[in-house]
Amino acid sequence: MTLLAAGQRRPRTSGPALARLLPLPVEEFAERHWGREALLARAAALPGGPGGLSDLLDLDAVDALVSTSGLRTPFLRVAKDGKVVEPGRWTGSGGAGAEVGDQVRDDALLGLFADGSTLVLQGLHRTHPPLVRFATDLAAELGHPVQVNAYVTPPQSRGFDPHYDVHDVFVIQVAGRKRWQVRRPVLEAPLRSQPWTDRKTAVAARAAEPPELEEVLEPGDVLYLPRGWLHSAEALGETSAHVTVGIHSITRYALAEALLAGAAGAEELRRSLPLGVDVADPEQLREDLASTLEALAAELRGADAQAVADRMRRRFWPQSRPGPLSPVRQAAAAAAVGPGTRVRLRPALRVRLAEGTPTDDQAAPVLLLLPERQLSLPAQTRTALERLLADGGAVVGELPVDDPGDAEVLVRRLLREGVVVPDEGQQP
């Protein structure tokens, strides 16, 4: 498979979603703070000023989510004094016609919240439209998968003990005030396989030390914490809520895993260890270890960058969802495609063009590489696809094709596959 040089979309490294969270240029954040140092930004220093992030979530939206949206586990957790409250205490059937037994019971939540429990709304990048849009844009800009949770804490209450996360976070205070204590890592840049619970003793010892940062966050303030930084928070004299935007950083270790996956092609590395080997004996392993390292080094030095990139794409692209579709409108638009139809690429969709394998009687098809699949399209659509991807959208009748009917067939296919969407203002 050959990647085509033209028509390749790349995620932005900066954009409006990320800029909303930063009091400094994106380039400076990338150099000084990304994965390295915490950063506190007061609302007044952010581009939108006080209230600039108020559209993302408020307490009324929290009430609506837990009371009228049919929310189920695991989209909600409840915690008190550092311990998770069993879901059986706050879930039940939805009543006639909705007998699913793990739906959130708002009356049970009321009692728990009034008694000091914290509500943790999980996966808001899938359930709350303003945060769906924000997280989709942010993930496209960062190139790293994003998740969004919210923590709603009663006055004078604490949800979780000091801990660290295995992903970077932006904390956005959206209601009330919360006192944060932040400390440096006990393990720099932990992987997802290295949670804080594996280092409870070290975490407790570090939590007993003076904090690196102790500040009260007020509505609109933003705190960035690289993965591994210890933190805990306590609500003050009123109900407090903050949004946590978790960034699942793609690491060099992940790149190493992709490299190692390619080493399976080396015959020397596929050979069996000696009969009767004791793998717990370092002396028995010494000779084979040396041979393995030599073969592995030779294989890695010759690694093909395109093959590694393909493995990374297949692993990480599916972790970031593109912008949502409207299936009913989309199907109607596909049925009504004509020369004047306007379409644009689906927001935040990751897509690349590649050249397929030719057959004896046909030219190589064009492959459209998508997060979880690929589309094979006729070779004659290549120029039109390149134009569409480069411009981000098109009018069907203006696409460069030899036969005007080919443009309609192509756009109809792309609409049905969710690659493009009707342009704003275009009615099917």
Automatic annotation (TrEMBL):
Molecular functions per Gene Ontology: histone H3K36 demethylase activity; histone H3K4 demethylase activity; metal ion binding
Cofactors named for this entry: Fe(2+)
Keyword Iron listed: yes
SMART domains attached to this UniProt entry: JmjC (SM00558)
The JmjC domain, residue ranges: 117-264
One GO cellular component term noted in the UniProt record for this chain: ribosome
Record's keyword terms, sorted: Iron, Metal-binding, Ribonucleoprotein, Ribosomal protein
Keyword Ribonucleoprotein: yes
Record's protein name: Ribosomal protein L16 Arg81 hydroxylase
Species of origin: Motilibacter rhizosphaerae
Taxonomic lineage: Bacteria, Bacillati, Actinomycetota, Actinomycetes, Motilibacterales
